[in-house]
Hints:
Alcohol dehydrogenase; metal-binding; zinc; Quinone Oxidoreductase, Chain A, domain 1; 2 domains; seven-stranded mixed β-sheet
Amino acid sequence: MTEAFPKTMRAWVLGGPWELVPTEKPVPMPGSAEVLIKIQAVAICGTDLEILEKGLPAQVDNELPFHKGLVIGHEYVGTVVSLGPDVDEFQVGDRVAVEVHAGCGRCERCRQGMYTSCLNYSRREKGHRANGLTTDGGFAEYVVNHVNTVHKIPEHIPWDEATLIVTAGTAMYAIDVLGGLVAGDTLVVVGPGPIGLMAVACAKALGARVILTGTRDNRLELGRSLGADYVINVKRQPDVVEEVRRLTNGFGADLVIECSGAPNAVNEGLWMLKRGGRICLAAFSHEPPVVDTAYMVRNNIYMYGIRGEGQMAVRRAIGLVEQGRLNLKPLVTHRFRLDDLPQAIRTARERAGDAIKVVVLP
């Protein structure tokens, strides 16, 4: 079953560093266990900017500089317009959000449900796909997705806001690996970027007491509006660890999610925790941090790292949105059309107008 659509589509493909080239590409056809999605909105992620600057991460085949000709963009939502053979999980017309990673389904990690840690990452001949990273993504009019990565979304969620569902899924994954939240736990979120702000909102929806730290007052105030009980500007509070301990009766927090990537943030996150606490690293550090492992051992601290939105966390994020417990609207700050993608990229890169999430529409 299909909906009428053209044979070719507009798309932006990788050129050299910081270069996206407009082109016409054939509309891809869905194969077995795949659907064709008409893209209704795609958000620009920090990973997109890193790809434009440095090339694609975690690639096996690096013969082509920057993988020229690849369509990047992975935070997209849209409408199902065609079904592959034997697909009965979706219908034409379904409104959907997508995950980035379709694991190979055959390696040890995929069989454990850890498909964002697929041992065949980037090996398409083994079945792995990561849309916008190893296969064509969302800076186009249409894209093919494996059904394992597709989730139906409610009619009442606007397309631009729905692009934040994947970001919320990443925050939920961080909460999951920390063991899930028990109402009343104190969680510190370090860094009020999109993932950090979504972590605040998700944690508050699950009953946590939330402390948000960062350097920009307007982002911190947005975090407060999303549910943060306390905000700390680390520029004005030089000893952020001491302030967290003051807010927790001297014991420290139960949980920390580190979303800043700052090299000093890992140790500060450790020192904020009470004994037996847990920390999840959800950001890429630009340089290897020195970690106080002696403190971890003495205090029985547990450290985790996540990549993306694994273990069905997106579905749980959608559940919070459906129930009205997760507000996505405040994070969408700028909107552009697909033809104006270079301007959208510049806005996101320069954080012009205090851009948080820049969304591209057809």
